[in-house]
Amino acid sequence: MVELKTLKPEAIPSALEMAKRYRLLNEPDEAESICLDILAVDPHHQEALITQLLAVTDKFAEGGLQLNFEKAREIVARLSSAYCKSYYSGIIFERRAKYHLKLGAPQSGNMAHAWFTKAMEAYGEALAGCDPDNQDAVLRWNSCARFINGHPDVKPDDADHSEVLLDAY
Q: N or C: at which end does the chain have fewer Cβ atoms within 10 angstroms?
């Protein structure tokens, strides 16, 4: 096994910027690796945790949804504020909704609706506990609502088994 090098603490700000750039370049594995290097030095670094979480959710489309979903939920648990936990749970659920819709499987619109609903509930929780000047959760909630309103196939399941569509999360 190859031994990893340790990042110097003073390099954390530039490493975090590099991780964000790799996300923008659609290189989530590289972004996550950099975040892991930062977290090895500072395990509670909130920006690194958030960037890692976003990189992990970027990988939903590559397959391995369940593994990456689980990993993202574990990262959310490490966030320090209730607002961040709610807001980033919403991000995870919203991205999962879009993943299911992109699959195009039978009932994917129903599955997507269920996950969009969970995302909107999480954004609502975030709004309840955030600074009135912070409107990020409003923007995400509205984005979900517009997505649902603009896609007729994204609708609730008419059957009584709709809860079965959601797993234990």
A: N
